[in-house]
Every structure is written in structure tokens, then in C-alpha cells.
Write a structure and sequence with these properties.
This protein is α+β, with helices and mostly antiparallel strands. Helices cover 40% and strands 19% of the residues. The strands form 5 sheets. Strands 11-10-6-12-13-16-15-14 form an 8-stranded mixed beta sheet, sandwiched between helices. α1 packs across α15, α1 runs parallel beside α17 and α3 crosses α15.
Amino acid sequence: MRFTDHGRRVVMGAFDGGEITSDAGGLLLREVAGRLNLFERMAACFDDRRNRKQVTHPLPDLLAQRVIAMALGYEDLNDHDRMRNDPLLKVTAAARPLVPGGAPLPALAGSSTLGRLERSFEEADRRYHKFTAQPSRLQDLYVELFTGSYATAPERIILDIDATDIETHGHQRGGFFHGYYEHRCFLPLYIYCGPHLLLSKLRPGNVDGAEGAKAAIKRVVGNIRRHWPKVSILVRGDSGFARTNLMNWSEANGVDYIFGLPRNDYLLHKARKIRSRAAMEFLATGETAEVFGDFHHQTRSGSWTRPRHVIAKVLHRSQTEQRCRFLVTSLDWNAPAVIEAMAQARDRAENQGDKPPRDLLARTIYEAVYCPRGDMENRIKDCQLDLFGYRASAHAFKTNQTRLILAGFAYVLMTQLRLMALQATDLAKAAPHTIRQKLLKIGARVISSVRRIRISMPDACPVQHIFFTAWRALASP
């Protein structure tokens, strides 16, 4: 093919470059998965009833192909009808040995085979669908990977719990109209500890936001304490999770909590002194007043069997109604997390030459302990948007649950890549999409011979130094 000349030079094009891939950075994902033994452990959470003598694609290879492809940006099953011949994905997703004589590796599984992997055995024709995922065991694997990422048990951890929506189309099972999100959706539940995903549970769109939260926290906490019996655990959530059963269970099992608390007239009345102090401060300075306070509160209905510690934040601004927010928590002066946060707050005040405020306890719990919960929203976006957790487009509910979990493992893979290999680079805090575009999407020529597979990446690759840094971190014993 001839194109417009470049000066005196003729410009020609042809499809004769050999085996070329656009995803050479996937080699790093392969190394991370190998360190975690990820796909073998995932395969142990499936029932595989195929005849072993007739298996072409082992279950770990199928899982590797699906999860790594999502990490590389291929979210749909039909992408694999063309990606199954990609030379790099064959190396990354297949554990089979090299073909004698240096012949090209055989093609990977197509979309129909991978579709059977996600399809539930109970919801399909049992003659053709031989796989059954065990979601509870896969969820437990999230926690095993989390605890395994620590060399020693931490003293304290914080679990963030939240719900979000996945829009549905057509008449998918479990999809219902939700008044808050204003469309038909599922309502998945997520639990994170920092960047680590611990739970991704799909729920129908017509359930309460806190439905199943107690059971989920109980399971996650139980799995964590099997590995770390003495770890101190704090559970954080918004006002949708300030439920009596969850708080009662936490108190009975030595788990601290801090939840948003819906505002009502009784709470506003009990916070009247804090509100008055904010109004007086505003009148004295003429500037926006932000005042914190705390008190003990018990519901009038009797749903709370005992008084609980409530934190109030009052914001008083010009020409607007006073804004009040409330938290309910088991934390007090003696909680280690509060002691540490208050010591840091006092040090900052002393370094700036300021006197610690009179509302230091309430301010510290609100700002230093509760407000960092907002970072969980970014982790949900990473999992939902960058790694395609929203692609719950199957008709069967269990199939969509499996897809959500597989997207969660793509998130785990990208998170472990960042934690293991990218901490000393510019991508130490990058989102999965940024890592994919800058580090994984590298064009390369794949040359197969009898003894080796050579991935030849371009000399002018702008992220060579980051790639070498990541390779050294993953190659070290």
C-alpha cells in the first residue's frame, strides 16, 4: 500500500510485521499474578465438572485470560474472539509449555467458552455449562490476598463499607427502579480496607442500602481475625449504615464503628448548645463558623438499648441556614486511633503557634477519623469504571455476580501491581486507567523460537525507566 510521499521518500504500508501486540506491559501483570498464585487459587473456588481428558483450556488459564484482559481494557466477552490470537495474551494467560519447534502458541478460549465460565450451572443447560462459581469462597479469597500482602499483622485497620448502583437495561433479573438513583439498577455492596478490596456483593435494586451489611461485616471480620486475632478493627460508613443491628453486633464483638447519623429534630435539640456557640462565633467574627461538639444520645423510640456517643458538626454561614451533621461512634478519649490522631492535631497546632481548640476531641474524630472515608468513593470508581465492574449485562443474576467478582480480581491485580512494583515511581498513586494507558499499552513484536519468546518493545518507549523499576521489584526474590 502506497501513501502520500514524505518529501523524496516513498511511504509504503503492509501487513507483514509478524506477531505484534499492543499490550506488552501485560508481562508485569503476569509476574504479579504468579507471585500471588492468583489464578490457581481462584480456580479452587470453582467446581469444574469437565472430562479432564478432553479439556483444552484449563480453568486457571480461562480465569487468567478473562481477568488479565479486563485489566488491559477488554471488558466484553466478544472481545476474546479476536484477542484469543494475541501473541502477548497467549503468553500472559496460558500456563501451557512452549510448542515444540518454536511454532506459535495455540489460540486461547473464545467468547462462548468464557461465557460458560461465568454462567451458573443451575441456570443453564447442564450438558454444556460445566462450571459453577462459589461466590462466598471467591469473596474469602479477597481477604486472604489482603492479609497475605502484609509481612506482619498491623495493630489497627479500618474497614469502609458502602453501596453503589449498576444501571441495568431491559429486564435483567434483580434489576429494579431505585428512587435515589432514578433508574433501574442493581445495588452492589463493597467493603475496602484502604486500597484493598474485601467484598463486592451484587444485590437486587429493590433492597435497603444496608441489607446484608451485618452479615458481610461479620464474615469479613471473622476471616481477618482468623489471620490476625489481635488486630483492632474500625468500621466506617455513611448514615445508611447507622443501623441498630450492626452497631449491636460491633459492640458485642469488640469492633469499633463510626457511622453518619440522619438528622432529626431531637438531635437538633440536643445539639442546641453547639449550634448556639457557632452562631455566637459567627456574630463575633463575621466569618463562617465551624464548630464541633459531642454528647451522648439515645433514641426516643427505644431502638437503641443504651446511650451512644454522637459527634456534631455545625456550619454557620452568612445568609444561609445553619447546617448540622451528626456521627454516631463507639470511639472516645481512650480509643488508640483517637489518641494518635489527637496527638498529631496538638503537634500541628503547636508547630503553627496556635492553641488547641476546645472542641479538639469531636473535631479530631470527625476530620481525622471519619472524613478519610471519602477516599473509598475513588476505589469504587476504580473498580466500577476503570475495571468494568458495571458490565453486569447478563440476564441471570448469578452470572452478573460472577462478573462483578471477576472485575474485582482485575482490580486486585492492578492494586497489587501498584503496591508491589510502582511505589518508587510516578505511578505510585495512579488510577488503574492511568497505569493501563501509560505502562501496559506498549506496542511490541513477539518473536517465538524453540527456546524463548522475545518481546521486543520500542527503543523510544517513554516509560522505560518505570517499566525497568517495576520489573526489578517483581523479579527480586
